[in-house]
Amino acid sequence: MPKTLGSQKIFVAGGAGFIGSHMVDRLCKDEKEVVVFDNLSSGKIENIKKWLKKSNFNFVHEDLLKPASILKPLSECETVFHLAANPEVRVGTTDPKVHYEQNMTATFNLLEAVRKVGCIKNFVFTSSSTVYGEAEKTPTPEDYAPLKPISIYGASKLASEALIISYAYTYGFDAIIYRLANIIGPRAQHGVIYDFINKLTKNPKQLEILGDGTQRKSYLYIDDCIDAMLTGMNHLHGRVEIYNVGSEDQVNVKVIADIVCQEMGLRDVEYVYTGGVDDGRGWKGDVKVMLLSIEKIKELGWKPKLSSRQAVQKTVKAILHERESNS
């Protein structure tokens, strides 16, 4: 039988972060009982502020790197959304331990807590397109092999996937893994759009672009992402399911720069390309071309409402609006 979240209590690790807080919004609007567990290292309390006094919501300011702190808030729940991670891929080039701790150790600690409390039925994990590395087949399907991540971030996500799958089979809960494209939208605190807006706010005449500007990737708006995750959750039939989640097209970095400039009302901005590393990448470990096959999740009835370009445009507007509101 397909899964439904029903009236069960839901534990959201990283629920104050970008994707996490949007998931929390959806769950709370649907009047689910939600426990958010977040250390606020990259998440923000403002993202979940409107739910803090609601009777169906509980916020736990704690860290997955402190295993003992997980057990009590987890012990009343049936479903886990593990959305906690360090989202900045680039940090792996200078401090790989960050990804090891924030992605792999944190995942292990959460799984150990799941094993110990024994009440978790469903475990939902946000993985990444970076687990594929530089796939020779695009659009890249879920069964593509061998998986050869070229970043520490991608490796940490792939290792987390393996841990989750093994725990699911060993300890008897169901797991669903989403390999996400670039998810964008309001509340984002990193990524190319966020970086471009910051740079152009400081210097509206010139924009530094990492790499050669030809990097082409899939971008998905956050609302589409949440819809996809809940669709997959409601159709989990087996012990473990893996779904790609992304848009059906790509957009390159130069086009993103053009959209940002246009939405900020800037003209004649000089683009300065760093040239990048390894044939025009933005940084070491940057996958230059990414497009996921989403046929598997489309068979469940989901498809993105926005194209990559539309998602970028809507995100730029949303981030600029946020800044105006906070200024």
Can you tag this structure with a few keywords?
alpha/beta; two-stranded parallel sheet; UDP-galactose 4-epimerase, domain 1; 327 residues; globular; 18% strand; Rossmann fold; 9 helices; 2 domains
The largest pleated sheet is described as: 7 strands, parallel
Could you tell me the mean pLDDT? 94
Low-confidence stretches: none
CATH class of the largest domain: Alpha Beta
Given the helix and strand composition, which structural class is it?
alpha/beta
Which range does the strand content fall in?
15-25%
According to DSSP, the number of beta strands is 13
**Number of helical elements:** 9
Shape, please? globular
**N-to-C order of helices and strands:** EHEEHEHEHEEHEEEHEEHEHH
Can you tell me the CATH architecture of the largest domain? 3-Layer(aba) Sandwich
How many distinct folded domains?
2
The portion of residues assigned to helices is 25-40%
CATH T-level fold name of the largest domain: Rossmann fold
Distance between the termini: 50 Å
Strand numbers in spatial order across the main sheet = 3-2-1-4-5-6-11
Question: Measured on Cα atoms, how large is the radius of gyration?
Answer: 19 Å
Looking at CATH, the homologous superfamily of the largest domain is NAD(P)-binding Rossmann-like Domain
Give the helix/strand layout.
Layout: E1 9-13, H1 18-29, E2 33-38, E3 57-61, H2 68-74, E4 79-82, H3 96-117, E5 122-128, H4 152-171, E6 174-180, E7 182-184, H5 192-202, E8 206-209, E9 216-217, E10 219-221, H6 222-233, E11 240-245, E12 251-252, H7 253-263, E13 270-273, H8 295-298, H9 308-326
Parallel strand pairs: 1-2, 1-4, 2-3, 4-5, 5-6, 6-11, 7-10, 8-13
Antiparallel strand pairs: 9-12
Helix pairs in contact: 1-6, 2-3, 3-4, 5-7, 7-9
